[in-house]
Description:
Largest sheet: 5 strands, mixed
Number of strands: 5
Radius of gyration: 19 Å
Number of domains: 1
Helix content: 40-55%
Amino acid sequence: MRFLPRLGLSAALAVAALLSWQLLRTPARGGDLALKAEEGFTLTLDTFLHVQQLRKRRLKAFCHRAGKSTTLPNSQGEKASLLPSLRVNTRLDLLYCQVPSTGVEELHQLLEKLEEKNVTLPVPLPYRRLHTRETRLSEFNHTEVKAMLGSYTKVLFVRDPFHRLIATFLQGMAISPSFSSFVQEVLDSGMHNGSVPWKPLVSLCRPCLVHYDYVVMFGFLGQELGHLLRRAGLPAGGLLPELTDSQVQWTYRWLSEQLFSELSALQKQQLAHFYRWDLAAFPFPSSFLSHHPSTAETWEK
């Protein structure tokens, strides 16, 4: 019986998916692509590159203002603690941050297809090339890590933190019987003890330490991944899986309103504070958390 609320939310999500395009055709205000989310919008390469510049410029300003760490630790233990979610594909010279519900699952599908086609980039590198699909960056030594950070194509997948919370709850990655109790679990766990599916991206992916070449936003995966593959020198034609993230994005805007209303004023304020780094580092103008005052305006390293 404790999971009935979650089943009800899942049913609501399915209904919303059918209605979202009619009810929510008006795009969100603000953001680098928010005004261009209309059905049929085509993201040109020039626009894609311009948007990347805007996102990375915002990140750079955030890192300067927040005073985040930009020094790579020497010890393996420190690297494992600082870079817990960074993965590398040494066959394709690709580095990315693995966080659930951000679009990285679609990247995994692409990598599997590239592996099946036996695609390898023939560029000589100053470290051993392992033929493996996925390896933790922290497993390599200091020299290798520096070389990878300097030569690999580095990709960061970003999604509205409140949408990530909803996805975590609906996908059963939390055992709380209601969304409000799940949010309280997140808040009680704190920054250091939080689970990867809901921890802030800035803490997991270290965008001030790792200078990502591409910051890909959930909602535009289909078009952005195509440009990204071609820019990275990888074959893009016919490899992209069927992506429905743009439809899910609309649906979650509707669902967010319902679930946000279930939270207490204190929970809303605490969530905005918990995700303050992500909200400052990335463009989420339509997020319910973006317009809610945080409990503090201070920055922590």
